[in-house]
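Subgroup meeting minutes
Present: P.N., E.W., G.H.
Scribe: E.W.

1. P.N. recapped why we're keeping a running log of single-chain structure predictions: easier to compare across weeks, and new members can see raw inputs and outputs side by side.
2. G.H. added today's entry (701 aa).
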Amino acid sequence: MYDCTFRVLFWGLFMGVCRAEENTVLCEMLGSPEVPLLTKKGDITIGGAFSIHSQISKPSFTLHFLKHFFFTLFRINLREFRFAQTMIFAVEEINNSSTLLPNISVGYKIFDSCGSTLPSTRAVMGLLNGQERTAEKTSNCKSLPTYFHFATCACLSNRKDYPSFFRTIPSDYYQSRALAKLVKYFGWTWVGAVRSDNDYGNNGMATFITAASQEGVCVEYSEAISRTDSSEEVARVIEVIRSGSARVLIAFLAQGEMDILLEEALKQNLTGLQWVGSESWITASHLTTKRYSGILTGSLGFTIKKAKIAGLREFLLQVNPSQDPQNSVLREFWETVFGCSFQSRLPGQIQCSGSEKLEDINNPFTDVSQLRISNNVYKAVYAIAHAMHNLLNCGQSEVFISVLGVSKYFFMFDTFYSDSAVCLLCPLECWSDEDRSHCVPKVIEFLSFGETMGGLLAAFSLFGASLTLAVSCVFFRFRHTPLVKASNSELSFLLLFSLTLCFLCSLTFIGQPTEWSCMLRHTAFGASFALCMSCILAKTITVVIAFKATRPAKTVPQCSAALQRTSVLSFTLLQLLIFHATEKIILECNLGSPLGFWAVLGYIGLLSLLCFILAFLSRKLPDNFNEAKFITFSMLIFCAVWVTFIPAYVSSPGKFTVAVEIFAILASSFGLFFSIFAPKCYILLVKPERNTKRHMMGRNH
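Output recorded in log:
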């Protein structure tokens, strides 16, 4: 019916991307790992890799067809075999469903990863190579990504290095930190540690040690073992544990390494330790026997949530070599469970009949009371089925699944009905169109010069700057008159310059943000208003000094000139220091550091408050010299504008936030300009007869 054969891979290893053991070559007892152990054809094929054989011996030379070094595999891992059968159970449930993938058959190919890196890789390549051959003959289908149901290594959460990785099991990042808190909770501040020498153990233990140090827990030693280590090396690790003073042992071990460590611990009679374990072995049923009770009784750890899978036990009890007489792994499973052999009877060996009953056996395969990892496998198969069901409903004859994996919980896909054959997530800067067939750019919104609001604000900004320049020309023309001299011409020109900057800085807020406008925006705003407030504060201080001084008149101008220059410089430099401390403003076209932004406003507000207080205290100066009154009035306007600005700024959406900020800048700048300079320009241009020293000092009578 469909042109493509789909293959999706499970991954049953702890190691994830691990170091390759130098002596790992092949799993040859049951043939090449590229050949699946259990298969079923279907329109959609789901591949699985499980550590069905997990005990591995050292490599040895062989003349068997002069082929390779090889690992001898010992017994079958019944727990992993249950995982594989759980996958088959889920596939069969889906095939029997009338609503999920109707009229489409689901097949499987299950490989033996042997619990080792190279065989695992070869198993994956066996699946992908088969898929490539199918794709070449049928259509342009592409290789599919991998699903992980038992890979907990936190290193795999790196989206840059592993963009196609998802899982149905939590990352060890959380488990490691939880173990540190557990140890701290019981007051165990001096512990030992042992880990698997692979990415699972090394990364998990590294996270634990970091978290433990933050909790005040010290690690006496941290040893690593591998299932391929020599017995002497494992014995050395046990000796380190025995000789250590820590009585609490953190065992971040895969089940294979845990089995090896326990066997050596039994040999050396290692007892008296409080074991704290990782999820891989803490609920393993074969460790709850009397054999290990003297060592592991009282062990603590975190487990994966268990679940019940209806019908699974009945399905498992039906497994029998008669289902596929030619399948060697089914025969080996049967021989392992019942301790018999299908080969010719040897002395003292029981002959397998095939009629033995699994109902009479209680072992890790038939025990479904603690379904944890099995449930992860079950959920992952159904996640794939639902994803494929949705994708096939796109109505295309050629379908490609770009699914990247399964998360901690049940996997949910964001699909687009993408009349498109490919279902993809749109980038953050895009969203799907109405038909959900393409990713279209989102509308970029900013306050531009071309729109009415932006144009008006820009016009007012230029108008204010032009007025300020015009007043500067008027003051320069009348710079030798008593009014300009009494207003402190040096500070007046500097104030006019700063007001020009205040008007012009609002232009940097208009237009599409660029790197330079973002750098200049709040920096220019803060610096120009700090300079403006510094000038006004210096003018106010100078007025107070001029009228309160008791020294000879000649010394007052010299002292006030030095004071005003120092105060303007120091107050402005302080604002620049605030910007230097918040360099994030240079990098982002937003508030940058919110603390820095509000610190800028707060500093400007502080300067305005000082100006207001000093000007208010100077209200009793001679009536005709009303500079202090003008400053007081200008500060009232300035403070009113910026107090109103705060709630308006916080509540304004999108580009209106920028418009509110520009409005506040222009309103406060016009308020300062008209309050301080309009009365002076009126006297200079309309009432020149008042521009006398006598009138300035209130000595008309």
